[in-house]
Amino acid sequence: MTSIGKRLLITAVGIGTALASFGAPAQGNAYVEAGLTQLTLSSDGISVKPSNALVRVGFQFTKNFAAEFVGAASVSSDTLMGASFKVDSAYGAYLKGQFEVAPKFELFARAGWLHATLSGSAMGVPGL
Question: Residue 65's closest CA among 22, 94, 101, 102?
Fold first, then answer.
């Protein structure tokens, strides 16, 4: 990720965190989530877990239905046997259904699409 891309992501995370602090969305409102996540890449018992900054923007259409857009990029890579792995970028869109089963407790499910670009390098040589 370029320096400009990292600055934009950090700015988006900051704005998202500030907006998210205003509270939970009401019906018909937009909302923003920001946070850190780990993506696990595994095969044959070995795995790497690069850390990512994630921003999710959604719009609550009804009490039980929303649409969401998500974007993410690595904030740190992970290494395995001398090779470094990271998420260059990820973005996607989801539909979200939710149901309040008790006060302040709801179940939700997301269905959608996500595109991620991963990269790796070993001994300073990119392109794994």
Answer: 94
Contact 85, 77 (CB under 8 A): yes
Q: Rounded to whole angstroms, how far apart are CA atoms 46 and 113?
A: 26
Q: Which residues 6+ apart lie within 8 Å of 62 measured at CB? A: 27
Greatest Cα-to-Cα distance within the chain, rounded to the nearest angstrom: 54
Closest CA to 74 of 92, 55, 50: 50
Q: Among candidates 117, 111, 98, which has minimal Cα distance to 50? A: 117
| Mean pLDDT per 10-residue section of the chain, whose length is 128 residues | 54 51 57 87 80 91 91 84 83 92 91 88 67
3-state secondary structure (DSSP) of residue 124: coil
